Amino acid sequence: MAITLTPPLSGHDVRELSVGDPVLITGVIYTARDAAHQRLIELIERGEDLPVDLAGQIIYYTGPTPAQPGMATGSAGPTTSSRMDRFTPPLLAATGVRAMIGKGERSEEVSRSLGEHDAVYLVAVGGAGALLAEKIEAAEPAAWPELGTEAIFRLEVREFPAIVAIDTRGGNLYSAGRARYRRSASRKSC
Amino acid sequence: MRDIPASDITALVARLYQDANFNLPSDVIGALEGALLEEKSLTGIEVLETLLKNAGIAARKRVPLCQDTGLAVVFAEVGRDVHITGSTPQEAVDEGVDQARREGHLRASIVSDPCFDRVNTGTNAPAMLHLELVPGDSVKISVLPKGAGSENMSRTAMLKPADGPDGIIRFAVDTVEAAGANPCPPVFLGIGVGGSMDRAALLAKKALLRPAGEAHIDPRLGGLEQKIMDAVNDLGIGPGGFGGVVTCLGVAIEEYPCHIATLPVAVNIQCNSARRASGRI
Hints:
Low-confidence stretches of chain B: none
Number of domains of chain A: 1
Oligomer: heterodimer
Largest sheet of chain B: 4 strands, mixed
Number of strands of chain B: 10
Mean pLDDT of chain B: 97
Strand order of the largest sheet of chain B: 4-2-5-10
Distance between the termini of chain A: 41 Å
Shape of chain A: globular
Order of helices and strands of chain B: EHHHEEHEEHEHEHHEEE
Helix content of chain A: 25-40%
Order of helices and strands of chain A: EHEHEHEHEHEEH
Number of domains of chain B: 2
Strand content of chain A: 15-25%
Number of helices of chain B: 8
Radius of gyration of chain A: 16 Å
Number of strands of chain A: 7
Structural class of chain A: alpha/beta
CATH architecture of chain A: Alpha-Beta Barrel
Radius of gyration of chain B: 19 Å
Shape of chain B: globular
Strand content of chain B: 15-25%
């Protein structure tokens, strides 16, 4: 049974989540990827206001394709989260973001800072952009439209499916899943 | 000599690039369906079902399979007896990629300079065009929209000749292990062996054009492909990287002679959305 998440989320809401929990998000989420993160962190470092109040919000790492007629966005699946790793700890500390949706592993620092700031890392299925776009009902630029697909968009989603990949206690879906199905000895990468 | 107007090449690239982004090749769908029968992880099975459902939606609604509609990798085999008129092959292909972007609502994902300003070109061009002169009077074009998630996890190594097939297996497995969930598993592997550093990488990319389930014509290389596939599937990464027995859907090796002192190897990872399309003028 999936857990319904309706942002804004409280610390309590996310502490209740555990690795492997399927969630369905309904409400407003914000997109941000490489270029938007760069700008957000520059503003935070200069002590300036952000263009969007992210307290309690969910950030979705995606850069959608342009919308076809009759659609809110085009294809809109998750992008690789690790490119945002260096930005995530300061972003969590400064804004109170409660969750991020992406794909792939995160760094130790990100995992630690999720615990410190009561936030979780959610993942969606990479390669399912056409299906995920059907869960997006409205989209409008929220900041920096000149960045094109890399702008911050405010999305209204209904039953957007994701899985908890890192919870506030440091549990990790990827390492647990890999350990369970591994049939060979682990080797250091060359 | 046969004259082919550059506009014909543009039109073909525009059509192929859209087709590739909306329609997952039938052999890739077959490989995903096969994986569904093998996968033991329930989450893994759900991921595979989601990917098949996604392919259905993309084809039906002509929505891109993935929001990363790719860096346009284009292979053109140009007959020696062909004269392309009107513009250069690169200009013709770039125009086709941009036309596909406009008509198909694809994403512009290319920045003009990699180091400093990284300003989007807005056209999704330039394409990575690989031209080859072949006998005949026709032009064959293959497009491979390449997602960055899997491209970023690809690697090239200059092994020692003594490393041999075992070294190639080890490097391929280590590359996939280090990639983990990032390249959107289950993945395909294009592996280039031999040539030079640059040629190995090109062979790896070219190997990704081979349909899933087709082994190399040389049984020794076909056997090596199978060994790599088995070793990669033992990693347990699984669909979506959430753990499972299906990490890899196919391995294709292409080889070329090399220097007595070298064994270049390139592993190009392709995501589950293994898009490609070919056509001929």
